[in-house]
Amino acid sequence: MHIPFDNSYATLPAAFYTRLEPTSVQDAKMLAFNDDLASVLGITASDMAEAAQVFGGNIVPENATPLAQLYAGHQFGSFNPQLGDGRAILLGEVIGTDGIRRDIQLKGSGPTPYSRMGDGRAWLGPVLREYVVSEAMHALGIPTTRALAAVSTGEQIWREQGALPGAILTRVALSHLRVGTFQVFAHRGEVENLKTLTNYAIQRHYPDAEGPMDLLRAVCAAQADLVTQWMSVGFIHGVMNTDNCSIAGETIDYGPCAFMDAFHQNRVFSSIDQQGRYAFGAQPGIAVWNMAQLATSLVQQMQDKDAAIEEATEIVHAMPELLENGWRNRFAAKIGISTSQPEDTPLIEELLGLMQADGADFTNTFRALCEQDARDQFTNRDAFDVWSEKWQARVTSEPDVKALMSRANPAVIPRNHRIEQMIDAAVAGDMAPFERLMKALATPYAETDPDLSRPPSQQEIVPATFCGT
Ligand code: AMP
Ligand code: MG
User: Fold this and answer.
1) pLDDT of residue 467
2) Quick check: CB of 184 below 6 Å from ligand 1?
């Protein structure tokens, strides 16, 4: 097996990380391997038994520089001055056949100096959940970390539910730089490290940015775009803490995330999000809040702090408009409008209001709109008819409503109940439901497996997702 490492993070100052190797596991077995992604990364792996040893953490591959990254973060609004990779190890980076540099990280690979009270491990459920959901996100065209491999460890992990099978996910990301990576140095007053980090982030992700304020502007734009894309597919991240907010603008750290079935603006799945801080409709506001934290950290390195604060404030204050326009464009496309106008907002909001009042299925209602049979998704059909007339009038001048809508409205998303069923089967040794989900989710805009588009029955509904990862 060959991984063409080209590591840059390991050349940064020692304060940025702790060098250490993964902790070996009893019995590493490959559960899933992403051949397509491996080939983009230039990784050749013909022997899956050997690959399981590498991605299970038993063999450190040649030229890897394994390390755990340091960061801090606001968790549910309160600042934690020291987090860091508590159960993840960055093996290194590769430059893919597409010329893009990406991190290769093991998640669940044993304790690190940043583990605090944790065991450094992950259990099979969240590993497969992240595998499926992140790859589904990628197929939807939404920026995300990806899954290269899932390995079972043959060891037991103790969680609230009891003993569970252990597993390790190999995650691939544009980088693992987070808002929290900036926060840790800003909080400690380590201005030199903050400057080094800023330059590193600029070079790696936004080479056109000229200085910290330009970086802030670019990350704000990337985050605004990301969150509007989440909204457009009914995705709720669930833990938008600043340590889970990627500088590269990718969806990262899939925990108690979920795609909504029945639409509601205030939908929350995460069992630990008691206040609904990260509810579906709260996500744009939280993205702005997170960018304000990045701004606060970045200004610490500026010569003229007053001027920097003023500029940073302006940049962050411009974000709601970016979010609003992005949201309107994305949802306008979902109802077949190619060039949206501010006046389209009430039309979109009215539809969402009807959907919310009826508990209509988010994905299927929009998909049915493409097929002209959305009326059946509503119990209050008269109200829908009134809306539909206004909608028809708005889209008469559109050249190809149906084509636009079928590109903006997926037929299949990773529904919670399917994920739970897939995990139960995998724990019992049956990977067939995993394979089935992966196959259908690879082409989410095509109806390849209609049964996976079915909303959960009353008994199948998953009311909450758990962080006990
Ligand atoms: P997360 O909510 O998964 O983004 O994790 C938040 C923080 O807790 C990160 O610093 C993780 O590395 C750490 N963490 C989560 N689970 C564990 C675990 N089982 N062992 C050690 N650290 C963990
Ligand atoms: Mg995290």
Assistant:
1) 61
2) no
